[in-house]
Design a protein that fits this description.
A hairpin with a 5-residue loop joins strand 5 and strand 6. The chain has a single domain, classed as 2-Layer Sandwich (Heat Shock Protein 90). It has a six-stranded antiparallel beta sheet with strand order 1-2-3-4-6-5, covered by helices on one side. Helix 1 runs antiparallel to helix 2 and helix 2 packs antiparallel against helix 3. The chain contains three helices and six strands. By secondary structure, it is an alpha+beta fold. Keywords: ATP-binding, Kinase, Nucleotide-binding, Serine/threonine-protein kinase, Transferase. It comes from Streptomyces dioscori. InterPro entries: Anti-sigma-factor_SerPK (IPR050267), HATPase_C_sf (IPR036890), HATPase_dom (IPR003594). This is ATP-binding protein.
Amino acid sequence: MIQETAAAEAGLARPTRTFSVQLSPTPRGARLARLLATEQLRAWQLPLDPARHLVAELAANAATHGRVNGRDFRLTLAVVAETLRIEVTDTCGELLPRPQGLDPDSESGRGLVLVEALADRWGVTRGPHPRKTVWAELNPSPEPDRAGCGDRGTV
């Protein structure tokens, strides 16, 4: 189920836009999270990068490390004032993510290091049981309309 709201039309002092979707904790679900987030960011006229990279990393972590058979993960994008918040919620709350030491020969283990480098802020919120939400925040500025160009937010 995809949900989108726009509180600005409701006359709230701080305009809020949200997008939320539940996806299967599989590589296909993680890829779909990135693609749906990219299209939503375009619709909101926000820069695609680094937001789509953050979505890709957080969704891949949910599909890889937060996977519980029969339970989905949820991607939520929220814009409040000048802040884009990206949240990925899974049902493996007992396993909290933390950046690992970098082994130059390792083929994995760099996802949260990238999140830490790309996000203005990030963290983990527990609950309600058995869930956890890994979130990242960005303070992007809107991109000017550039008809005929490729991805917005890239140079």
